[in-house]
Design a protein that fits this description.
4 helices, 35% helix, alpha+beta
């Protein structure tokens, strides 16, 4: 009987810890998709093919190269995801991943030697925000935001599998999501 109480206490403690961690990283945050006009950011990136789980590594690589070789410090990372990972094989998923250039625009010509560079189009997108408190926030955000986006898009006659942008805004402790609005 004492062993059963100990096992239940351990399970209960683990459950409370899990709920606390989930809450801390934004798991109970509500998602309110809204249509807004945004865009115009200068993206410095690498093209990526394969598992979207590589995004952090690619973004870090771009950040480090900008910082060490070009003395450019950025505060926002991003990923533009072109394919739906539920319907596309991992090996062929396509994305652009890197950093948002917020200064040092005079270095763009030299940056083109090592990176892809483009302006993200200013347009009307489906948007949402999620709190950023560490890497688990990115994973929880993905699990919460994309289903909310898909529901909104489906209800309003938009294509679900349109490109999506995630901006990891470290100073403002948030992740911004955008989804292109394409009518069915």
């Amino acid at each position: 009987m004492k062993t059963l109480k100990t096992v239940l206490a351990v399970i209960g403690s683990l459950l409370v810890a899990f709920i606390g961690i989930y809450a801390y990283y934004g798991g109970f945050s509500s998602i309110s998709p809204e249509i807004r006009e945004v865009g115009g950011e200068t993206l410095v990136y690498e093209k990526m093919t394969g598992d979207y789980g590589q995004s952090g590594e690619v973004s870090d690589r771009v950040y480090q190269k900008l910082l060490i070789e070009y003395q450019i410090e950025t505060t926002k990372g991003f990923g533009v995801y072109y394919d739906n990972p539920k319907t596309t094989e991992k090996e062929v998923l396509r994305a652009d991943v890197g950093c948002i250039l917020e200064s040092d625009f005079e270095k763009i010509d030299v940056l083109k030697n090592d990176f892809e560079i483009r302006k993200y189009p200013k347009s009307t997108y489906l948007t949402a925000e999620f709190p950023y408190k560490g890497t688990p926030s990115i994973l929880i955000g993905i699990m919460k935001v994309y289903p909310a986006f898909n529901g909104y898009l489906e209800e309003n006659g938009y294509v679900i599998d349109s490109p999506a942008l995630e901006i990891w805004d470290f100073p403002n402790k948030k992740i911004s999501y955008r989804k292109e609005l394409l009518k069915n």
